[in-house]
Amino acid sequence: MSLNTLFGEKKAEAKKIVFTSVDQYPEAPISLGTTLSNFTGDWRTFIPVVNEDKCVKCYICWKFCPEPAIYIKPDGYVAVDYDYCKGCGICANECPTKAITMEKEEK
Amino acid sequence: MEYKPIRKVVSGNYAAAYAALHSRVQVVAAYPITPQTSIIEKIAEFIANGETDIQYVPVESEHSAMAACIGASATGARAFTATSAQGLALMHEMLHWASGARLPIVMVDVNRAMAPPWSVWDDQTDSLAQRDTGWMQFYAENNQEVYDGVIMAFKVAETVNLPAMVIESAFILSHTYDVVEMIPQELVDEFLPPRKPLYDLADFEREPFSVGSLATPADYYEFRYKIQKAMEEAKKVIKEVGREFGERFGRDYSQMIETYRTDDADFVFMGMGSLMGTVKQAVDILRQEGYKVGAAKVRWFRPFPKEELYELAKNVDGIAVLDRNYSFGMEGILFTEAKGALYNTDAKPLMKNYIVGLGGRDFTVNDVRKIAENMNAVIEKGELDVEVDWYHLKR
Ligand code: SF4
Ligand code: SF4
Predict the structure, then answer these.
(1) Is the pLDDT of residue A5 over 60?
(2) CA dihedral sign, ordered A32, A36, A37, A42
(3) What's domain B6-249's architecture?
(4) What confidence score (pLDDT) does residue A8 get?
(5) Residue B227's pLDDT is what?
(6) I want to staple B14 with a disulfide (CB 3.0 to 4.6 A). Which of A105, B10, B31, B177 is the partner?
(7) ipTM of this complex > 0.95?
(8) What are the Cα distances from residue B377, in Å, to B268, B352, B360, B380, B390?
């Protein structure tokens, strides 16, 4: 079964643009392409952590994630793409077996 | 082609409409409000007469007028609108949008007092309340300056990619007829070539992109800095454009603060807009009577000409700041700005604020004389009687 997310498949090409000096920015605030270069996962406080011992591969989290930032690995377990996960906690809330816990992210 | 002006007797509002026409604006989106209405009526008339193919968008509010200008400008078009008072206030949110998205829209604001109580007469508080929106502001003294100001504002705005407001007085200019020297179309075209936009939302060849989407705390700050850099750059551009305008058409605008008989002046009157015409006339009379006075007309309030103010202030004993506006809880708005601009310098003239002409209260040569007498006494004594003088108040 292949239920991978868009991001899960395309991830190889993704490269975040990071500006380190004011001169690198465009003059006007325009987007510089798609989310392949604009990562959206850097404003969260909590991150979801999957415990595979409890996971029953129901994919409810995959279905509910609004980003979507959850993808399905070849072994059938789910994993979180932290480049795009915004830390909303919906996956943890929906998981029927409490296999996902939200943990404070250290930056 | 040699410059031969076309002289027309027009109101300040018609001068604005002709200037928009001669600037070859492509989109006008506007909503009527007294005393601005005859600007957009005149533009509608140009279109109805087949003189232009301007896209005219009649909208349901001023907020929408500015929104439509923003949309047009984001596709690279030259966009224009006009408003007054409550209409300008209703645009407020969109004004931030125009500057934030770096769109060189030009708007004429006909200064009108804010309600209540209702008033349709001259007062600068409407435009000055938009001080922090990232728009440049040019205050016209007469109908000629309204016409010249709009054409120059497009050139400055499109060079630095910031919007600009050209401001004229209700009725004193908007509905008063005067001779205006207009520039033949080919010569305006040479002075003001077609716009080269920073980006074009209607460019379907390039990768899709969005304008003004989210910037996190990691990036927002830099975009704000860029607006300030553009404002600083605008000071240079304004002087160059003003000089070029003078060389081509005989009226020099290279000074952001126009100085009039200030060279040997003991003190100067400083203010903005049409009231400075009255002040200049009074200066001539006062000079004959032995007062060494001059006038300093602040043409551009944003960007604020700090450096020019310093050059003026270091050579005078006093500055009488005439504010046809008020910031409640403080003082006249130009007064605050001028004092602030000089605080960290060695120029320390005595500065006094006269609140004049609010809501169209008549301000005459005789008033300037009375202020001169008071200012003279203040300077002789070396201390202020009051800092903020509600000059006309019935007591
Ligand atoms: S926390 Fe929100 S964004 Fe992140 S994986 Fe879970 S549902 Fe998706
Ligand atoms: S919702 Fe829970 S149990 Fe279902 S796939 Fe996601 S982590 Fe596994």
Answers:
(1) no
(2) positive
(3) 3-Layer(aba) Sandwich (3.40)
(4) 52
(5) 98
(6) B10
(7) no
(8) 14, 12, 28, 5, 17
Q: How do residues B65-93 score in pLDDT, each as one tens digit?
A: 999 999 999 999 999 999 999 999 999 99
Residue B197 and residue B343: Cα distance in Å, rounded? 38
How is chain A split into domains, by residue range?
8-104
Q: Report CA B164 to chain centroid distance, whole Å.
A: 8
Chain B residue with minimal CA distance to A26? B223
Cβ atoms B150, B141 nearer than 8 A: no
Q: Is B182 left (phi over 0), alpha (psi -120 to 50) or beta?
A: beta
Give domain limits for chain B: 6-249, 257-389
Question: In sequence order, which residues have a C-beta less than 8 Å from that of residue B75 and are 6 or more positions away?
Answer: B200, B201, B202
Rounded-to-integer distance, Cα B104 and Cα B196, Å: 11
Output the CA angle B143-B147-B148, nearest 5 degrees.
115
Partners of residue A31 in chain B, C-beta under 8 Å: 209-211, 213
**In terms of Cα–Cα distance, which of B325, B340, B260 is closest to B270?**
B260
- CATH architecture label of A8-104: 2-Layer Sandwich (3.30)
pLDDT in tens, B9-57: 999 999 999 999 999 999 999 999 999 999 999 999 999 999 999 999 9
In this structure, which amino acid lies at residue B40?
A: I
Say if the Cβ atoms of A30 and B207 lie within 8 Å.
no
Q: What are the phi and psi torsion angles at B51 (to 5°)?
A: -80, -15
Closest among B71, B85, B75 to B31, alpha carbons compared: B85
B87 closest CA partner among B118, B57, B116, B110: B110
Beta bridge partners of B8: B180
A6-51 pLDDT, tens digit each: 545 556 677 888 899 999 999 999 988 777 888 888 889 999 999 9
What value does the mean pLDDT take over residues B182-209? 94
Question: B284-315: per-residue pLDDT in tens?
Answer: 999 999 999 999 999 999 999 999 999 999 99
Residue ranges lining ligand 2, Cβ < 6 Å: A 50, 55-61, 78, 95, 97, 99-100
Instruction: Report pTM.
Output: 0.92
Q: Whose CA is nearest to atom 6 of ligand 2?
A: A61
Residue of chain B whose alpha carbon sits nearest to that of A39: B216
| C-alpha of residue A106 to centroid of ligand 1, in Å | 17
- Under CATH, what is the fold of the domain B257-389? Rossmann fold (3.40.50)
Query: From CA B73, how far away is CA B102, in angstroms rounded?
Result: 9
B210 with A30: Cβ contact below 8 A = yes
Residue B1 forms contact with A (CB below 8 Å)? no
